[in-house]
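From: lab user (bench 3)
To: helpdesk
Subject: output format question, protein + iron/sulfur cluster

Hello, I'm new to running complex predictions and I'm not sure whether the block I got back is the full result or only part of it. Here's what I submitted:
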Amino acid sequence: MNKKIYIRTFGCQMNIRDSEFVMGILLERGFEKANSAENADVILFNSCSVRKHAEDRLFSNISGLKDLKKKRSNIIIGLIGCTAQNYKEGVFSKVPMVDFACGSGNITDLPEIIKDVLKNRCPIVAADKVNEKRKELFPKYRNGNFKTHVSISEGCDNFCSYCVVPYVRGRERSRRQKDIIEEVEDLANRGFREITLLGQNVNSYRDSPLRGQSLCRNDFVKLLENINKIDGIKRIRFMTSHPKDASPDLFKAMKNMDKVCEHLHLPLQSGSTRILQLMNRGYTAKRYARLVDSFRKFIPHGSVTTDMIIGFPSETENDFQKTMTLMNEIKFDSAFTFKYSPRPPAKSAELKDDVLQEIKDDRLKALINLQEKISQKRNEPLQGKVLEILVDGRNKKSPTTLTGRTRTNKTVVFEGNKKLIGKFVDVIIESVTPHALKGRMV
Ligand code: SAH
Ligand code: SF4
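Helpdesk reply: Thanks, we reran it on our side. This is the complete output you should expect:
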């Protein structure tokens, strides 16, 4: 009988895409998908290690399987992805229930690794390919059938001082444009309408990934232009843009590509140039603000979202106030806000984590409050407007309440039939909150 696989994913979109990819290659190698951990033969935990909080949740979730593992001692538990890469053999002392660990670079070997563990029942650590280019496999499996993610590059070369990604996902490797186009064409033929291109820094995408080559900013624009030509695709999104590499050329090109959505996710991290320098981000607060101005000049009705870290080592009240002031000036549509946590071997882990917990809590609260007010203000002018929505789900408690996204990536809630999921509809916006728009189909 075929062995059944269940995957739990913690973390970013990149991780969600990796889990989907892993399920895809396993299904093509004769494994089956289990609908719950209870009836699986192999449970995989795919986890991000970017923030401590995600990692703590991961370890407590694995430990939560103690009873299941006692009841069914032959069940296999594997840890895959960034956390496995970071801990390697250390995984077994952290969570002894884990049978094997497989880092991000080794996931194309998973079918063999799982077969090996099932047969020999001995622990395995596979984490030696963190810098290797992933084998170009094109598993058909996707979680949905109308919108999906496509990875354009792996790893990162930026070494922001707080960030573990370059260590756990390795140096930046771009996929060949030809392979990406082939994947998107296939998705379009299968009925997918919205594609989100994923990379840690999409702006440094290079079609020819030779080391030592000077950065060609236009490669990402060329990629977008070629995807924009693919019949069937209606919306193209991308993330994440890095402020040191994103340029007005990109914004200008976005304006001329009908399928590229009017949304820019551009992590700022801090409004204090001193802190940005300590973070090794490669731009000043001023330069960042100019970049957003340039985006809004080309795409006046576009949305801009960001990531912020508060409580980086040595952040003073004055640094924090600079962040508040800049947020007030720029007026993001929304922001993901994080409390700093040291992530060794990232460089900043060598600095003293000296902002007190309660100060971090207060600053986070103040930042969230400010952003809520700004988000509300950014959403208010949309009242009375008719917007095109891609319907993507429904409310579990109220099944006739549907949700969807605007091109600017805002969530819209409205009443409708579930048959509309996966379709484009026009909705008139009747009221707004900081986090969603409420409307009615027209
Ligand atoms: N490549 C993307 C995403 C990186 S991870 C980028 O450059 O933006 C996503 C977000 O997690 C980051 O933007 C940052 O805000 C946050 N983050 C990363 N490391 C962190 C840390 N050590 N503590 C708190 N937040 C962190
Ligand atoms: Fe981490 Fe910076 Fe790379 Fe983003 S750009 S993944 S924050 S090192």
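A quick orientation on your result: The chain has a mean pLDDT of 95. Let us know if anything else is unclear.
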